[in-house]
Specification:
414 residues, alpha+beta, Conserved hypothetical protein from pyrococcus furiosus pfu- 392566-001, domain 2, 2 domains, six-stranded antiparallel sheet, globular
Length: 414
């Protein structure tokens, strides 16, 4: 069963939380982050993306960059803008976006649950990105940002969290993107004990939703620190844990993650459509087509939208990966027709999060940058969990979770 323990979080003071809190490190590049916080020295971007404090041509992965991140964090603490709680607490974290509400528990998961596959993964990590996140932990001995986990919902946990939310929150802010973030501290001894026991007794597995690189970094560097001091899993050392927000699976929303391709691999439009029609029932539509069911696709080509429905025999509903629409598209279109085989490295394919809407697909094609776009039906939480439970790996760029966590609301010290 799973481990979730409380911790003494570093948190912004209530009057500074909106100034400090930022979006996650990986949703924008250094140039964008630098522009957003150019007049805000207290933004958490200076900690999670400290390269913004260096010139454009500086090495983003140099030791001095990671040291700068820790220096920026220390400035917030020394200046009294972030303080550490006196007791080991859990925190309830609610996010509301466009009427969708989800509430997770903030705590620390065990690094050994990662190694023992109680924390289940569904994506491969890139060594360069993983090393970058590991260096942030190595140089700071902090988990700056939580990972985003899911767990099979448990009614008694839901009831406990609902009771916590009756109290006044410590933060309740609406950020510039219109998303409301609310946080409650859970310090009551009985509730803390109950949460810990409920996870041990009723949550057999935890699933990585968003943050595979941060998960790997938290576990692997925690193990490095433990080995350095000759520690063990039972010694109470904070290196045995890394910070996470855990949401019940029935509250999470995965949106579509779409594809755009640069060319038709030498084919003309008529030939390409004829080839696609061999594997899909194809119908031109008068408006944008957003897939409303599994195995339905939208295709945008030469100012026209098409509805595609995969024909029988083009997928395997008994294979957790083979049933995915991203797999069908790859096996029936991208690989055989467009010769796009490696989604991780091929420069002729790009990915567009559904948060940008179908208009972004039209824009990418109409501009001439891309030739054809495909809109996909979102993956379900059940599909994600089935793949993870079978120790299988999803193709790249499949899940897009919204809303995103806000960084800087809580920090874990190893």
């Amino acid at each position: 069963m799973s481990v979730l323990v409380p911790f003494k979080a570093y948190r912004p003071t209530a009057d500074k939380v909106k100034e400090i809190a930022s979006r996650p490190y990986d949703v924008l590049n250094a140039k964008e982050a630098r522009e957003i916080c150019k007049d805000n020295p207290n933004s958490f971007y200076h900690i999670i993306k400290p390269e913004i404090d260096f010139s454009d041509d500086a090495d983003h992965y140099a030791p001095e960059v990671y040291k700068k991140g820790k220096e920026n964090f220390d400035k917030l603490v020394d200046g009294g803008l972030m303080i550490q709680d006196d007791t080991e607490n859990y925190y309830a974290y609610q996010i509301i976006m466009d009427g969708h509400k989800q509430t997770g528990l903030v705590g620390c998961c065990a690094i050994d649950d990662y190694f023992n596959n109680i924390i289940k993964k569904h994506e491969l990590t890139r060594p360069d990105k993983e090393e970058d996140r590991k260096n942030h932990v190595r140089y700071s001995k902090l988990n700056y940002e939580p990972v985003f986990f899911a767990y099979p919902h448990v009614n008694s946990i839901d009831e406990l969290v609902a009771d916590v939310k009756q109290a006044d929150p410590v933060y309740d802010i609406t950020t510039n993107d219109g998303i409301q973030h609310t946080l409650w501290t859970i310090s009551d001894t009985d509730k803390v004990t109950a949460i810990k026991q409920l996870f041990e007794d009723q949550v057999p597995s935890i699933y990585v939703a968003d943050g595979h690189h941060r998960t790997a970094a938290g576990a692997l560097v925690g193990e490095e620190f433990r080995n350095e001091v000759g520690g063990n899993a039972a010694d109470g050392g904070r290196y045995n844990y890394f910070m996470a927000v855990l949401f019940p699976d029935n509250q999470l929303k995965i949106i579509d993650y779409n594809r755009v391709a640069k060319d038709l691999n030498g084919m003309d439009e008529a030939t390409f459509i004829a080839k696609v029609s061999e594997k899909f029932d194809l119908e031109e539509t008068s408006n944008q087509y957003k897939p409303e069911a599994l195995h339905h696709f939208g295709m945008y080509l030469n100012n026209k939208w098409y509805k595609l429905v995969a024909k029988e025999g083009t997928y395997n509903d008994n294979d957790p990966v083979g049933v995915l629409d991203v797999t069908i598209l790859s096996k029936q279109v991208l690989e055989p027709l467009l010769n796009i085989v490696d989604l991780r490295t091929d420069k002729r394919i790009d990915f567009v999060g559904g948060i940008r809407g179908l208009g972004e697909l039209e824009k990418r094609v109409n501009s001439g940058e891309m030739e054809v776009a495909f809109a996909l039906h979102p993956v379900s939480m059940q599909q994600l969990m089935d793949i993870s439970d079978n120790d299988m790996i999803m193709p790249p760029k499949v899940t897009w979770f919204e809303p995103k966590l806000r960084s800087g609301l809580f920090v874990h010290e190893l």
